[in-house]
Design goal:
Order of helices and strands: EEEEEEHEEEEEHEEEEE
Strand order of the largest sheet: 4-1-9-8-7
Number of domains: 2
Shape: elongated
Number of strands: 16
Largest sheet: 5 strands, mixed
């Protein structure tokens, strides 16, 4: 479904939504969701979709969402959200889940759950990416080593990544599969001189979008 979302409307599609709702996890973490007022808790892996039908017709048509390490968020109505405000953000402790509701047809809706950070690779080459928390200098390389590596294919985006609003982060990049050296630290904050980009050796074409 992720690849088909970029196809023209008249293109042949292999995936057909048979339910009124499809819930999509466009993040780097497992999420749980369910209908408010019920015990429903459906596990949704990263970059996976779930064809959803309401658990109970006696409860409100509202969804709740949870991260693995945190409790449930406040509920949000799906149908009303699509009509009035298709984009909203929900706080879970120090993290933010961005909820986007789109109409797939007159009767079907898509609910997309996203994190705060998306990295877009504008090059043809694939890249390795690390998002590293800023820590004390003595622990910096250990933190870098333990941080997960994301593969960013050419001309594509990463799944959205959760970052804490109370922590600072930096990015490091290298060309995928070449065992090349990592770049220096790319601070995940606005450049001190205003709208100037951060310059990275190696000819990287990088666009960073972040919502804190």
């Amino acid at each position: 479904m992720w690849s088909q979302s970029n196809k023209p409307k008249d293109a042949v599609r292999d995936f057909i939504v048979m339910t009124r709702y499809v819930v999509c996890n466009d993040t780097n973490m497992n999420l749980r969701f369910g209908q408010t007022g019920t015990e429903e808790a459906i596990l949704l892996a990263p970059r996976c979709c779930h064809l959803y039908a309401w658990r109970s017709q006696r409860k409100k048509e509202q969804l709740k969402v949870a991260m693995e390490e945190n409790g449930w968020t406040m509920s949000f109505p799906v149908a009303a959200r699509c009509r009035s405000q298709p984009f909203t953000s929900i706080r879970i402790k120090n993290y933010t889940i961005i909820v986007t509701v789109k109409s797939l047809s007159a009767t079907q809706k898509q609910v997309i759950l996203s994190g705060q950070l998306i990295v877009s690779n504008t090059l043809l080459e694939h890249l390795d990416l690390k998002v590293v928390e800023e820590v004390a200098k003595d622990n910096k390389e250990l933190e870098f080593k333990n941080s997960p590596t994301y593969i960013v294919p050419g001309r594509s985006n990463t799944s959205s990544i959760f970052i804490s609003s109370r922590k600072n982060y930096f990015l490091r990049l290298r060309f995928y599969g070449l065992d090349s050296a990592w770049t220096g630290d790319i601070p995940l904050r606005e450049h001190g001189t205003g709208s100037q980009p951060w310059l990275v050796k190696g000819g990287f074409g990088l666009i960073v979008r972040c919502v804190l």
